Amino acid sequence: TLYEAIVRDYTGRTPEAREQTLIVTHLNEDRRVLNSMIHDAREKAGELGKEQVMVPVLNTANIRDGELRRLSTWENNPNALALVDNVYHRIAGISRDDGLITLEDAEGNTRLISPREAVAEGVTLYTPDKIRVGTGDRMRFTKSDRERGYVANSVWTVTAVSGDSVTLSDGQQTRVIRPGQERAEQHIDLAYAITAHGAQGASETFAIALEGTEGNRKLMAGFESAYVALSRMKQHVQVYTDNRQGWTDAINNAVQKGTAHDVFEPKPDREVMNAQRLFSTARELRDVAAGRAVLR
After folding, report:
1. What does the alpha-carbon distance between residue 183 and residue 35 come to, in Å, rounded to a whole number?
2. How far is it, in rounded angstroms, from Cα 273 to Cα 248?
3. How many CB atoms lie within 10 A of CB 270?
4. Rounded Cα–Cα distance for residues 93 and 79 (Å)
5. Is a pLDDT exceeding 90 seen at residue 13?
6. What is the pLDDT of residues 190-207, one digit of tens each?
7. What is the mean pLDDT of the chain?
8. Edge-to-edge strand order for the sheet containing 52-60?
9. Class for domain 60-126, per CATH?
10. Cα–Cα distance measured from residue 212 to residue 99, given in angstroms and rounded to the nearest whole number
11. Which of 161, 185, 220, 288 stands the most exposed, by the fewest C-beta atoms within 10 Å?
12. Regarding the domain delimited by 2-58+185-295, which CATH topology (the fold level of the hierarchy) does it fall under?
């Protein structure tokens, strides 16, 4: 499968190369599956400690700009947590009659908010999830927190797990987090794969990109999304796709139509040329020796 090919590619690299490799997806589901599969592959290879713990995490709902102002967006994310004024709230009710949302915090306090107010106040929706981690896993913070000294996308190694605590080290400093006790410490994830949305601002020497047109991937296929994914690397990017022709057609169509963003904020010529060079020189796995080794 596509997932298995990506996992083989990543785990087949040297430890040094892995530390410089970023796997970029467009869907949270793809990110979750790849992170879990790589964790399992590393565990099977004896690279992780025997003790494993399940920790609660909060994933950004990845709601597109403008969609938060629609009541339907809130209805489609009933289990999401809303972060308002640094306080986490569950969605306690949605009223179509007056277009208001009832939010409730951990203390039972409620507040009413309209979708438009939510956008104005910078509300963010997060989806609760759980991941399994062990000693040796690579993890990252998904949200910056000045109070706690967390920097988004900074990568750490798990050096110990015990009960509900996870000890992280970046080689220079150590952090002990207890995501089971603190919501604010649930903005963490395994660091093998990341969404393009979360990868903005991140950069690595090598990148592996999962692109495609099957299912919800089709909604994300286009020049803008491909550009974000393919520009995360400094030296080399390997693209895996479920439909090469369909994906390249989606990119070409987007380039021909153009967007309002392109008109008002055109990309520097150098960046566009770089993206076009990547597309024009890309080769299928079976056409190169390293690719054939991965497919085997």
Report:
1. 21
2. 16
3. 8
4. 11
5. yes
6. 999 998 877 666 667 888
7. 84
8. 52-60, 124-134, 81-84, 87-95, 100-105, 110-113
9. mainly beta
10. 36
11. 288
12. Rossmann fold (3.40.50)
Q: In this structure, which long-range contacts are made by residues 7-11, counting pairs with CB atoms below 8 Å and at least 24 apart in sequence?
A: 7/34, 7/37, 7/38, 7/41, 8/294, 9/208, 9/238, 9/240, 9/294, 10/38, 10/192, 10/208, 11/38, 11/41, 11/42, 11/45
- For 251, the token pair is 């990119």
- Report for 55-64, 169-178, 241-250, 267-276: range of highest mean pLDDT: 169-178
Q: How far apart are CA 249 and CA 199, in angstroms?
A: 24
Torsion angles phi and psi, residue 208, rounded to 5: -120, 120
List pLDDT tens digits, range 234-291: 778 888 988 888 778 877 776 555 543 442 344 555 555 665 566 566 666 677 666 6
Nearest Cα to Cα of residue 186 among 142, 149, 122, 147: 142
> Taking the domains of the chain in order of start, what are their residue ranges?
2-58+185-295, 60-126
Rounded CA separation 224/146 (Å):
30
Q: 9 and 40 in contact (C-beta within 8 Å)? A: no
Residues 6+ apart with CB under 8 A from 281: none
